[in-house]
Amino acid sequence: MSRLSGLTNGIVRENPVLVLVLGACPALAVSTQATNAVGMGIAATAVLLGSNVFISLLRNIIPDKVRIPCFIVLIAGFVTLAEMVIEAYAYPLYQSLGIFLPLIVVNCVILGRAEMFAKKNKVLDSALDAIGMGLGFTLALLVIATIREVFGSGTWFGLELPWLIDNNISVMTMAPGGFVVFGLLIALVNKVSKGRAVRKKDFSCEGCPSARICGKIEES
User: Interior CA angle at 100 toward 174 and 55, to 5°?
Assistant: First the structure.
């Protein structure tokens, strides 16, 4: 796989939210406003980039049997740093994201890329993978949030939109509206890609990249 494809795969073909369906919890929870979506996307991308780079650097040093705890400690360190920066310089955003900011530690996108990519590849490739996945995650959140905010609140990035501000669909800012938008966007991506997006064919434990993490498959 070329470095260019490694950078662009995460945007459409392997979009973590709309194709791999990872990180759906924050994608639905914070996507009521475009500002929150961009903030969460940038924070997650920064954590993903930092953790991927360091895990790639340390991949030959970290013992395989304790790699998951080590990955989580590294990720938690970058999440704490991101949380402190946002609290210091963007306090309203920090308040809006709430508990979902520290929960980046257990975001499946970040731990999944650490386990499936960073621990197997060099630093530059891991950094490009992180940037691509981060961009894909941010764009997916922004699209979901734009639809929900425009039609649910009649605003976009807090700016009032004529007519829509007085004729909004309030359910779009609630959980049912989030799931509807999420499902329709997944269907749209699948339609545009003509089914060529990554598809999971094996639903057994053997086909799951996290099977060893949950203990369903013993380490060889």
Answer: 140
